[in-house]
Amino acid sequence: MRVFAVAEIRLGELDPVSVELLNLANSVKGDGKSEAVVIGKDVGSFAEELAKYADVVWKIEDDSLENYNPELYADVLLQLFEKEKPDLILFPNSSRGAELAPLVASKLNAPIATDVVGVDVKDGIKVSRYIFQGKLMVDIMLKKAECYVLTVRQGVFKEGEETNGEIVDAGIKPKVTPRREFVGIIEPEVGEVDISQADIIVSVGRGIEDASNIELAEELAKLLGGVVAGSRPVIDNGWLPKDRQVGISGKTVKPKLYLALGISGAFQHVMGMKDSELIIAINKDPEAPIFGVAHYGVVGDLFEIVPVLIEKLQKIKG
Amino acid sequence: MKIIVLAKHAADPESEIHLKDEKTLDERGLVFDINDWDRYAIEEAIRIKENLGGEVVVVGVGKSDDTLRKCLAMGADRAIKIPIDAGMDPFVTASAIKEVVEAEGFDLIIAGLMSQDYNNALVGTLLAGMLNVPYATAVTSLKVENGKIRVTRELEGGYQEEAVLSTPCLITVQSGINEPRYVSIMGIKRARSKELKEVSVSAPEGVYEVEKMYYPPVKKAEMITGSPDEIADKIIQILKERGLL
User: Fold this and answer.
1) Which domains are assigned to chain A?
2) pLDDT less than 70: residues of chain B
């Protein structure tokens, strides 16, 4: 198979997920080739890095490609794919990849599956992915087609061999006038507390139920000498500021202690806290995915347990 | 401005997810409601209409009556139900919707970023490709300016991208873009007189064949059990052993 991996440049750097895509490509290509595609204004150094893991690296360079734009990027990719006829195309399941891949798939009439964590190419293309925010998995056989598109979950395909591929300038320029105009990148808000520097984090999720209950977490954090953070639903509801969000679209934290209160543990959140030294999770739902990443788990009502914990800590602290 | 909202009636992942067999969910423990992301989509559409006038049409695929009525009660003007069972296949869903929205015409389509049950995040984006309109995903703010749509969209690590789209276009919204209103009794009463029509479409053959569903293999945490008192003691003991107290 000819397996193409569309690399991702993020904030001027090659995102490591690009190499993960090539690891997957190399593991499924059989007698075929792994071929990276890198798009931008000046991508020479990224192409050299990718050539360590791909058989071929296709460079697509143009001033108009400096900033990601789905219409321009899809246009140049389609020009390449129409010429080179890939069997399988991989994108990262990133903010950009998840946006761009379906457009390419719809134009190629290719079956697409997203956020895949497993790929089997024995008799066609079979993918494994999570559903219900990580509570269940499903294996899906994609309908026979000339070409398939997948977006791949980051952090899954970390192991791979090094290659020594060739770099080819695809000589492709965009031909379309985009109807979406890139205005700029907005930097993250800076708050008074930097949770990514904290040693102890008390983190709250949907299970905290109400803004007024954040006090409970504040009290516990104070006694432990830590700070309060939260998962997406808590930020969405405005119960904590955006700079306290842990997860892919928020901050990545690695504290000595991460105490997760009422957090279900969707992948998006877990990626932001899985490397904490000690994770203790309290959740009512015994099936909550957070128990798959925690070192210690409590299935129970945080409103019964946390007040007792606070009381005991107050005694210890005098 | 004519806005079409895509709304899915979906099982809540917080409800009890059990399997009947390898290919079917046990519906007994499932709680269905409007897909969480679509709550934000319908709210955003109604706000635009309240500010600028126009019409909000909500479209649902499959068993969607309750969700469509909820959207009407929130303030949508009309609802269209496409009575097909697309299962887990976003290609079937998007193709069916394409037929309906092309006939309707629109300035803006708003969908949720993904569904809370299957998490494909594909219906909106595939539809944009099929309709050949500009689009943006994971939108966190939206402003209508001189007939164009100015958005910010969520990237990784707290960063956002700002972009301007010409209309007609499609956007998918990220949760938290607004604070969805509650359905009022008045709204429910008003919704009774609003149109909810079924439209038949020729759904294409699907591209997904579900081979099996199963529980993910996880390394389980060491579980702490007992009364709240015993649990608190055990947690304190762990913290002391780790030198955190």
Assistant:
1) 2-169 (3.40.50.620), 195-317 (3.40.50.1220)
2) none
In a domain, B209, yes or no: no
Number of domains in chain B: 1
Query: Touching check for A316 and chain B: CB below 8 Å?
Result: yes
pLDDT at B219: 73
Residues of chain B contacting residue A291, judged by C-beta atoms under 8 Å apart? 218, 220-221, 223
Kindly state whether B37 is in contact with chain A, defined as any CB-CB distance less than 8 angstroms.
no
With an 8 Å Cβ cutoff, is B231 touching chain A? yes
The string of pLDDT tens digits covering residues A48-106 is 999 999 999 999 999 999 999 999 999 999 999 999 999 999 999 999 999 999 999 99
Q: Kindly report each contact of residues A248-254 with a partner whose C-beta sits within 8 Å and lies 24 or more positions away, as own/partner.
A: A248/A272, A248/B156, A248/B157, A249/A95, A249/B154, A249/B155, A249/B156, A249/B157, A249/B158, A250/B157, A250/B158, A251/A195, A251/A196, A251/B157, A251/B158, A252/A196, A252/B157, A253/A195, A253/A196, A253/A198, A253/A201, A253/A229, A254/A196
pLDDT tens string A16-28? 999 999 999 999 9
CB contact under 8 Å between A11 and B159, yes or no, is yes
Distance from CA of B194 to the nearest CA of A (A): 30
| Interatomic CA distance for residues A229 and A235, integer angstroms | 9
Q: Is the pTM of this model over 0.70?
A: yes
Provide the shortest C-alpha distance from residue B2 to chain A (in Å). Answer: 19
